[in-house]
Amino acid sequence: MDSKYYVEVSSSQRNHFGEYICGDVFISKRLKAEGRLISVLADGMGHGVKANVLGTLTASMALNFAEEHKDAQTIGNIIMRTLPVCSERKISYATFTIIDVDNGEVSILEYDNPLCLVMRGANILEIEWEELSLESLDSFGRSQEIKSCKFIPEKEDRIVFISDGVTQSGMGSGNLMLGWTRENYVEFVKETIIHERHISASKLAQRVVNKAYSNDNFKSKDDTSCGVIYFRDARKTLIATGPPFNKESDKEYAQRVKNFDGKKILCGATTTDIISREWGIEVEDYIESSDPTLPPMSKMEGIDLVTEGILTLNKVVNILSHNTESTLNLRDGPADRIIKLLLDSDEIVIMVGTKINQAHHDPSLGVEIEIRRTTIKRLEEVLEKKFMKEVIVQYI
After folding, report:
1. Which of 102, 152, 159, 326 has the most other CB atoms within 10 Å of its CB?
2. 244 — phi, psi (to 5°)?
C-alpha cells in the first residue's frame, strides 16, 4: 500500500429475518506484492441459500477479474453472461460493487447497488461517475448499465458501500414509509463521523447496519450489508517471542523492541528475561488472569503485555481460527489480551528468536504444543487471510 497511509477495510452484515445464511457476500483480498486491496460486495437476488449462491459466484468472479486488471465493461459483461437464470423470474441477477485500491489510486465499479459514498473527513466528496452499457439485455430487452469512477484518496477519506437492505430498511413503517432512503443514510454517516472523527471502518460499518436493523424493528426485511474502507495512519504492534539463535544477538534483539513505534508484547519467560536484563528493568510479580488454562501474566515498564510463550500463542491461533470479529467473546486472559491488541492493529511485526527451547520437546507437555515456527506461521496466515492484517515475520 502507499506509504502515506494505511488502508483499513471491514464490513458488517445482518441476514434476512428467519434465514441462517446471508444473501449478501463481502470478500476482500490484499495483494502484498502489488500494493493493492480489492473489496467486493455482491447482493444475490432474493434471500437465503439461492441468494448466497448467486452472491458468492458474483463476488468470486468480480474479485478474480479485478485482480487480473480487466476493464470495467469486460468484468460486467462476463459476470452477467455467467450468472445462472432464476427459474421463477427468468433473469440472472446479482448486484455488485468492486473497489480496487491500487498504489494510492481507487477504482470503483458498481452495478445496481446503492451508489458508493465517498467521505473526505465529514464531508461528501463528489466524484465523477462514468456509465457503461453492458452487452447483455435483461428479460425486458433493456440494456444494462454499469457505473465506474477513479479518484486519488487522501488520508482520513472513507468509502462506504452498502446493499439496498440499508436504504430500504423500515419501508412501510409509520415513520419510514419509503424506507430509510439514501438521504437519511448519508446524513447518518456524516453525523457519525462528525461526532467520532476517527471511528474505525469496523465500527462505522456496524453503526450503519445496526441503525438499519433498528429501522426494521430488529427483524431485517432484507439482507443488510455495509462495507467501509478507511485511509488513515497505521496502528502497529510488535510480538517478540523466543531467544535469538546466538546469545550475542540479545542486545540487538532488545534494541529492536525498544525502538519499535507501537504496542509491544513479549511472549515467553526467556524472551522477557532477555529484555529485562538488557534494559535493566525488573519484571514485576505475576498478576492474576481470568484464564486458568494459561500461566498468568507479568508486568514490565515499557511493555504493553507480558505473557507465557508457546501455549499462549497456540491459544491465540485457535481462538482466531474458529471465530470472526463478530463471534469473539474475549475476556481478560493472556490470549484474550493479545487478540484485543492484534485486532486493534493494522501492521503486526512478529520477531521470532530461533534458539530451540528444549522444554518444548518434553512429551509430558502434551501433543498440542507445536514448534514455535509452525505456530507463528499459523498466526501469520490467520491474521492475513481472515482478519486482513499486514504481518511481517522476522527471524533472529
Report:
1. 159
2. -60, 155
